[in-house]
Amino acid sequence: MRSTAAPFQRPLRWLRAHLVTLAGLATLGYLLLPNVIVLIYSFNKPNGRFNYSWQRFSTEAWTDPCGVADLCGSLTLSLKIAFWATVGATALGTMIAFALARYRFRARPAVNSMIFLPMAMPEVVMAASLATLFLNMGIDFGFWTILIAHITFCVSFVVTAVKARVLSMDPRLEQAAQDLYATPVQTFLRVTLPIAAPGIAAGALLSFALSFDDFIITNFNAGSTVTFPMFVWGSAQRGTPVQINVIGTAMFALAVLCVLVGQLAGNRRKRS
Fold this sequence. Notes:
Layout: H1 6-17, H2 19-41, H3 60-63, H4 71-102, H5 108-115, H6 117-120, H7 123-137, H8 143-167, H9 171-179, H10 184-213, H11 216-221, H12 228-238, H13 242-271
Helix pairs in contact: 2-13, 4-8, 4-10, 4-12, 8-10, 9-10
């Protein structure tokens, strides 16, 4: 006699075999749900000041993303600060990572511990500390205080990413280059730097995202300067314009595009 549980055995086996994949997809969907909502409401035409309930479809915000006063100005400022913070943090973090991974010195354990402090401590503590430092030094709050604060905050993430890549490098590759009469500069530019490039790129992208998105540290050290996150926070109290959803959707699409390009380049490099 045929068991009544037989028809359910195949679906149960398939579910057990793909349970991890389904859980990962469900988690990814949960994480991306806010971005989907932002995308949908970027095509909304609200009746009042607040873009919290769907009214009717419109592309007006996409055709005029700078229709709100000071929005594009704050966005440009945030992009500029994020770019220079990425350059500064990547340069400093890469040099610190190579020093910690390749050289032994007396203060190395202390430096290793201090590198993780900006990532471990609450942002508000670091923000208040930097604000106190700038006030005691008599520095006016503005573009430069935000930039210095962002570099200080982002450099630890670059060190972590680059150091992990440098520690995984095979030193025999550099020794082979030296055996082939390559100078130290040639060895670094043609062997070491290309191998460490993925870690450096990861640290740079992470720095850009952290700097562009930061609000707490910026709010403490900005003075009268308004970046895009501060503009979003201020506008939320008076009414959220649809153009904010447009900018958020565009930035998310740009980030996804960068990830896809990196994946395609990595796959092409593996095949070659």
